[in-house]
TrEMBL record:
Listed GO biological process terms: peptide transport
Compartments it resides in: Periplasm
Superkingdom, taxonomy of origin: Bacteria
Species name: Microvirga lotononidis
Family label: Belongs to the bacterial solute-binding protein 5 family.
Full protein name: ABC-type dipeptide transport system, periplasmic component
One CC-aspect GO term: outer membrane-bounded periplasmic space
Solute-binding protein family domain boundaries: 79-414
Principal cellular location given in the protein's record: periplasm
Keywords assigned by UniProt, alphabetized: Signal, Transport
Transmembrane segments: none
């Protein structure tokens, strides 16, 4: 029997214990250097609801303050305990046994038990109620609760270890009694509780007096204020009316940083991807598509579009992803000469290569700028294309329906298990709105399936990731250019104690004023 028990002091390698001290338990030495305050946080969009399964960007400032996950990740993707103190992966990776932390209370005062986790999993597995978590539950067959502190999750087939860990990290227990009302009334175990809300204006949270992490939260109140745009939020920070901006843009963040404010970046960025509709000419020509691997001036795109905040990438992975491979960036660096050679191999005429438009999201300034950069770069190799600029919902409709030849768009889930990239439209393996059915790249489908079913040695797992990476650059239906930050934090230099979150959610429990 292959039974891997992962207790508190031994999680995925020797590095894990040090990481746990920073995330699973408070850093007392650091906390003693901070004092509590009322945190005044500026956000640029109002929340949707209090359901942690509504994993939408506009809710990112609330989720990890109202709820805790079963496990957490360190910034480099190592798993550490949270509400689960240990977990054991069963024979053939077909189950995981989770032990819950004792003494944890929901905001109502009720204790956390396996029945609450079971109720949470039931909600997550319902396509009408599971929302953004539903897809993650696709690997789950059922679950049992041997006792109040234990839950066993059974899988439909063998599941790779990292995919199991992603499931545990994405599971944020909701009190069973609060499942039906969770959209309007939080029902979590988090460091903060709801104190009040003014729709479209603000949300106020107060410290949970019975929170399970010793010495946390440091600050006793958070006031989130909704501002009309990034400029208004920046003005509030500069005037002293706000202490923190969460979720602002890169350009304003750099300007504020240069003015003396602190910028905190997390390990969970998006990746900007040049999305290609291979069902339409000239992009149905493989050599023509492959040339774009070398036509992206990634350094220039990052510098001009995102003020240098991010990393150039040639694959759709953040550094925390187990499939990340920095060597590809060197191999597919900007190289017009290699691109020209592939364009010549394509056999297409200049007119054929120029007979398309680049769809542009006019509402998003970075996208406009990088589209202009690519237009200029293509002109240098003899490809003259026009920009088709659409605003707001008009662009979103075209993008989601695949009504374009090429466009830029960010993709998420790039720091977790590699096949999670398939949650993004251009990378979907089924019902792909751009590439259509049947999927035109069977090698890609096979590579995703290989990743999903390889759970043996590290060499076998790495080989599966390498195979997927090679298929991605060969098929070239999506050309990544750079990572960029969501959930950027710009703050007063008087504050410290920011905890990085793998999804770049805002974590306030460790933040306080410097003494």
């Amino acid at each position: 029997m292959r039974n891997r028990r992962i207790p508190f002091t031994k999680v995925l390698g020797a590095f894990a214990f040090t990481a746990m001290a920073a995330i699973a338990a408070p850093d007392h030495a650091h906390a003693q250097k901070l004092k509590g305050t009322t945190l005044r946080v500026a956000v640029v969009a109002d929340m949707t609801n209090f359901d942690p399964m509504q994993f939408s960007l506009v809710n990112f400032h609330l989720i990890k303050n109202l709820y805790d996950s079963l496990i957490e990740y360190t910034p480099d993707g190592k798993a550490v305990p949270s509400l689960a103190t240990e977990w054991s992966i069963g024979e053939n990776n077909k189950s995981v046994r989770v032990t819950l932390r004792k003494g944890v209370l929901f905001h109502s005062g009720a204790p956390l038990t396996s029945a609450d986790v079971a109720a949470t999993l039931k909600k997550a597995s319902d396509p009408a109620k599971g929302k953004n978590v539903y897809a993650t539950m696709g690997i789950v067959q059922d679950w049992t609760t041997p006792d109040e502190q234990t839950i066993v999750i059974n899988f439909k087939a063998p599941v790779p270890e990292r995919q199991i860990l992603d499931l545990l990290q994405f599971t944020m227990p909701i009190e069973a009694a609060g499942i039906d009302t969770v959209e309007t009334k939080p029902a979590g175990t988090g460091a903060y509780m709801l104190a009040g809300r003014a729709v479209g204006q603000s949300v106020t949270l107060k410290a949970n007096p019975k929170y399970w992490r010793e010495g946390e939260p440091i600050s006793q109140e958070i006031r989130f204020t909704v501002f009309s745009d990034d400029a208004a939020a920046s003005a509030a920070l500069e005037s002293g009316a706000a202490d923190i901006i969460y979720g602002g843009g890169a350009r304003s963040a750099v300007r504020l940083r240069d003015s003396g404010f602190t910028v905190t970046r997390g390990p969970g960025p998006l990746v900007q991807v040049f999305r290609i509709n291979t069902t339409r000419p000239p992009f149905n020509n493989e050599k023509f598509r492959q040339a774009f691997n070398y036509l992206m001036d990634r350094e220039g795109i990052l510098r001009v579009g995102y003020a240098g905040l991010g990393e150039p990438v040639a694959l759709p992975w953040a550094p925390a992803s187990p499939a990340f491979d920095a060597a590809y960036l060197k191999e597919f660096a900007y190289n017009p000469e290699k691109a020209k050679a592939l364009l010549a191999e394509s056999g297409l005429s200049k007119e054929q290569m120029s007979n398309w438009k680049l769809l542009v999201y006019g509402t998003d300034q970075p996208t406009v700028v990088i589209s202009q950069i690519v237009q200029s770069t293509l002109a240098e190799v003899g490809i003259d294309v026009k920009l088709d600029v659409l605003e707001g919902s008009e662009y979103v409709k075209a993008q989601l329906a695949g009504e374009y030849q090429a466009t830029f768009g960010g993709v998420g889930n790039v720091q977790k298990f590699p096949s999670r990239v398939a949650t993004n439209s251009i990378y979907r393996t089924k019902d792909n709105p751009v590439l259509k059915e049947p999927h035109p790249f069977p090698d890609y489908l096979a590579a995703i399936e290989r990743v999903n079913t390889t759970y043996g040695s590290q060499e076998e797992v790495k080989a599966a990731y390498d195979n997927l990476n090679r298929v991605l650059v060969k098929s070239a239906f999506a050309i990544p250019t750079n990572s960029y930050d969501v959930g950027l934090i710009v703050s007063s230099p008087k504050l410290d104690g920011f905890t990085p979150d793998i999804d770049n959610l805002f974590v306030a429990r460790t933040i306080g004023l410097k003494k």
